[in-house]
Amino acid sequence: MVSTKIIEVKNLGAIFDSKDKRLEVLKDITFSINKGSFVSIIGPSGCGKSTLFRLLCGLPTKDDCKIEGKISINGKKPQTARESRDIGLVLQKPTLLEWRTVRQNIQLPLEIMGYSKNTIEKKTKDLLKKLDLEEYSHYRPSELSGGMQQKVSIGRALGYNPELLLMDEPFVALDEINRRRMNNEIINIWEKTKKTILFVTHSIEESVYLSQSVIVLTKKPSTIYKKIDIELPYPRSNQENSSTYFKYIKEIRKYLNEASN
Fold first, then answer.
1. Domain containing 125: what range?
2. Which of 97, 137, 145, 146 could hold 103 in an S-S bridge, CB 3.0 to 4.6 Å?
3. Over the chain, what is the mean pLDDT?
4. pTM of the predicted protein model
């Protein structure tokens, strides 16, 4: 039987243990995420979201970090999943190459993976159209706004068709208007591509606006306090003034306050 789970985390723990100190960051974290879903993670500042994100991505941690439990991404260990291109990463900073155009930045991972020129051109053309970036294809990153740069970063992550997008507060540096614009963009991308998205945020409202469910983490040692299903239709812009929308915001704020104590 084919599993519908793309992320499975069981009894995950992370302890930084050095000669000077012992710090338990994550403790007994267990959750799963279905393929094609949009899930947000929220928690108090400094609770260990970044450590959890790095472990899910299969990125290195500090040498003194001891890991317990199990993480499976598409049936593989995180590092294997990342190396086999099952994971697309979108970080807080776009980290685009200034000497390459928008088109060339999107093409970079495809070039590294050795796709033919024809395949690269076809994939790039499709992504530029899907992301409404066609008229900006010859721009340099410095000629774009922060939101547009992140859109290019998303395009680059989607280039090799990963099963999963892991996004670490990608819109945190944007003003409120552009942040909402990018929220709508990422929902549009999610609906078009049918990708699974795991989105880390500090914003309660953003988590409700974007997600099908929200995972609330506690303070250190961080564990899961609640998982809330957001049973609202899309587009969420039509739901913002509803009593149910505000109920979810109030509910998550309550859980987050409890999880911070």
1. 100-155
2. 137
3. 92
4. 0.91
